[in-house]
Design a protein that fits this description.
Elements (H helix, E strand, L loop, with lengths): L1 H7 L2 H69 L12 H8 L16 H17 L2 E6 L5 E4 L22 E5 L2 E7 L5 E7 L4 H50 L17 H48 L4 H33 L7 E4 H18 L3 E5 L4 E4 L1 H17 L6 E9 L2 E8 L6 H4 L11 H7 L5 H11 L3 E7 L3 E9 L6
Parallel strand pairs: 7-9
Antiparallel strand pairs: 1-2, 1-5, 3-4, 4-5, 6-8, 9-10, 10-12, 11-12
Helix pairs in contact: 2-4, 2-5, 6-7, 7-12, 8-9, 9-12
């Protein structure tokens, strides 16, 4: 049940659903267009069949009208036998009667019964042919009363409405409750309606089978295309599913693994590259954290051991004040070392969590550099190091404490790693929208294989000297991460037995922003 719910909540189903809706809309549009076209064609065929019989039905009315004219003329002759006027040929049937030897004179008038069967036979031939083709017809008089109606005609057929604007000889089609009909006016105001029941007409029967065939084709195509599209979507999403499985595996602790990079032209290659880069940084972060814990534990073990040893010594074996003083000094040194270590770790933690971002302000760098130099000048004098300063004032954005820490750490390292009677130069100058601060010394320099590691946490080039000085190897890490938190960068240039130069490049504050 859970897998079914997960499927219907998946991207695959959502894409396939939208694809199905779009596919259904397109197929429905084509199906509607095709069915309407077939209906129109079928109606045109039926209308053509019905139109074919319109002249014959009109001829029935003309025959009846001519017969009535002949009948009236016959009665006029029989009622006035003294009329010796020449016989006027008025209608077609009069012409036929005269040609066959009738109506040449009033004395030759014969019974109308000789002509009626001939007219009736012609009319019945048309009606019989209509009935054989399942058609019906209704003939209307001028007053729209029914003149003739086939026996298969349905009840309540609407009579053609008088429409003076409609020209004669033009048939008008109409659909009515299962019937297809044509209405047409003819001469003298008479009208005809001819129609067929759709269920009996072969064109409409073929139309039903055609529509059913269209529907079957449409449904079959939709099913094939829908599930075929689902298969294509599955193939398209397969790399993403593979990425999900690999990410899940990595999230379980296999941080050293990476997602397989797809083909160069794949759209998801940037995503995979970004994820691999993220996992690499995450792995480095975890490794850095592991090393931090290990190194911190190692660094804390020595002062703690010193403290434990000195305290135990003070409790058991000390007798004089000088001995107690020596123990206290050792404890103070160990405590100072642990304090420096803890403060450095707290500083890095604050930088990592970017707590200081909210405290950023704009300040001038020159007075802070000079203040830091004055604070450390006594340390420089104690080590026989000369400090020279040439500054160009500039304003940056950051924290005063963070900037002071940068200068203090760089200057402290330059003092401790310098030669006897060495020199330190601190310079700054502006370039475009940046200010560059350089701290150079005349010390022993840093070996090439150590230069790429000096900014790592707890890394020390001269391990023994750093332990004696109380350094834990966090100073340059603090400098680098503080500089980067200010939006800047730090680089170094060092040569053995010549000296080292650190270059800090920081963006100048834009007071107008």
């Amino acid at each position: 049940m859970h897998s079914i719910t997960a499927y219907f909540n998946s991207i695959h189903w959502k894409i396939q659903l939208w694809y199905g809706v779009l596919l259904f809309s397109i197929i429905s549009a084509f199906l509607t267009f095709g069915i309407n076209s077939e209906i129109r064609i079928s109606k045109q065929k039926v209308d053509a069949d019905l139109t074919h019989y319109v002249p014959f039905l009109a001829n029935i009315i003309y025959n009846e009208l001519e017969y009535e004219s002949l009948r009236d003329y016959y009665h006029s002759l029989t009622q006035d036998p003294e009329n010796k006027e020449p016989i006027r040929v008025v209608t077609r049937w009069q012409l036929i009667a005269r040609k066959e030897g009738y109506l040449t004179s009033p004395d030759s008038v014969v019974s109308l019964e000789n002509f009626r069967p001939r007219i009736t036979r012609i009319n019945e031939e048309v009606i019989d042919e209509l009935l054989r083709n399942d058609m019906y017809a209704v003939l209307y008089n001028i007053d729209r009363s029914i003149r003739l109606k086939t026996e298969n005609a349905p009840e309540n057929i609407p009579a053609p409405r008088p429409s003076p604007d409609k020209p004669e000889s033009v048939a008008y089609a109409r659909d009515r409750a299962g019937y297809r009909e044509l209405e047409r006016k003819i001469n003298y105001g008479y009208a005809i309606v001819i129609g067929v029941k759709k269920s009996l007409n072969p064109h409409f029967i073929d139309l039903q089978s055609t529509i059913l065939r269209y529907i079957v084709y449409a449904v079959s195509f939709f099913i094939l295309a829908f599930f075929g599209g689902g298969w294509i979507i599955s193939r398209a999403l397969k790399p993403i599913n593979s990425i999900s499985r690999q990410v899940e595996k990595i999230s379980l602790g296999h941080l050293s693994e990476r997602i397989d990079v797809p083909a160069p032209d794949s759209e998801i290659k940037p995503l995979v590259s970004s994820l691999n880069s993220t996992f690499q940084r995450l792995e480095q972060s975890f490794e850095q954290q592991r090393l931090l814990v290990a190194d911190a534990s190692h660094e804390l073990r020595t002062p703690l051991t010193v403290l434990s040893t000195q305290v135990q010594l003070g409790l058991n074996d000390l007798d004089t004040v000088d001995e107690y003083r020596s123990v206290m000094q050792s404890c103070q040194t160990a405590i100072s070392r642990m304090t420096n270590l803890v403060e450095g770790m707290l500083t890095l933690a604050r930088i990592d969590s970017q707590v200081q971002d909210n405290a950023f302000t704009e300040f001038n760098i020159e007075p802070l550099i000079m203040e830091t130099v004055e604070v450390l000048r006594s340390l420089a004098d104690e080590n026989g190091v000369t400090v020279e300063v040439r500054l160009t004032d500039a304003k940056i954005k950051g924290t005063v404490g963070g900037f002071t820490s940068i200068i203090s750490n760089l200057l402290s390292n330059a003092i401790y790693y310098n030669k006897e009677n060495g020199k330190i130069n601190i310079t700054s100058y502006k370039e475009n929208q940046f200010v560059e601060i350089r701290v150079s010394d005349s010390g022993a320099g840093i070996p090439d294989h150590d230069q790429k590691h000096v900014f790592e946490r707890f890394y020390r080039v001269d391990k023994s000297r750093n332990r004696r000085s109380g350094f834990a190897g966090l100073g340059l890490s603090i400098v680098k991460e503080t500089v980067e938190s200010f939006g800047g960068a730090i680089t170094l240039k060092s040569e053995l037995d010549v000296g080292t130069e650190f270059r800090v490049r920081l963006p100048v504050a834009n007071s107008g922003s």
